[in-house]
């Protein structure tokens, strides 16, 4: 069975954010991830990690103006200064939290702009971010995201992401392989795990049921089978990563919604 990390932006939403660390630890998680830490002091988060014996696995670099609809700025010409300031802030948090990887969202393709005209900016920004992160031994991750959840997102397919990683050529630039997004856009998930995990270019995996993004035992994907594939390929190639649980709980009482939906960890083993 893979080692799982609780995504605290999705799980335990019945609790205030800073209380979710203890809840995840009580449910047996050893790692945590979330979207953004920047509303809190890094020292405060680090104390929660330490108090609960948790490893910070992943968080996102600043995405631009999230409330205004931005979903990353890495691909946007003219936003390089904002991008670099965001990476610097993310690396400060990564150092304080002992986090080995940050996810850099590509951004939305602007109206009237051909996506092909954005690749150069995207790759230049990622090369710069990877160079900065390498100094802290931090991986920079890019994630293909389906166009139903985020219409117009720059990066949608696994093969696209791997081409970007290969084109940039930085050893610490890797792909965040979310099996939920992969199934919606492409399918053939097991084959893609077998194809890409041995390359060393996958830095992290995330899961959720398809199509509702609930628990992994709900929906069309056979996660019991996929977990065995991850274990099999990891044993053969030495892939050491976490599998992030980035789903919306669907079960249980309001006060215990997340915990009561965690039975999949036993039934899918």
Short summary:
The protein is of the alpha/beta class. The protein contains ten helices and eight strands. The protein has helices at 20-26, 42-51, 80-97, 119-134, 158-168, 179-185, 189-196, 223-237, 257-260, 264-267; strands at 4-7, 31-33, 55-60, 101-103, 139-142, 173-178, 202-207, 243-245.
CATH homologous superfamily? Divalent-metal-dependent TIM barrel enzymes
Supply Rg: 18 Å
The fraction of residues assigned to DSSP E strands is 5-15%
Supply the number of helical segments.
Answer: 10
Percent in helix: 25-40%
* CATH architecture designation: Alpha-Beta Barrel
Q: How many β-strands, per DSSP?
A: 8
What's the number of structural domains?
Answer: 1
CATH topology: TIM Barrel
Q: What order do the helices and strands come in, and which of them pair?
A:
Elements: E1 4-7, H1 20-26, E2 31-33, H2 42-51, E3 55-60, H3 80-97, E4 101-103, H4 119-134, E5 139-142, H5 158-168, E6 173-178, H6 179-185, H7 189-196, E7 202-207, H8 223-237, E8 243-245, H9 257-260, H10 264-267
Parallel strand pairs: 1-2, 1-8, 2-3, 3-4, 4-5, 5-6, 6-7, 7-8
Helix pairs in contact: 3-4, 7-8
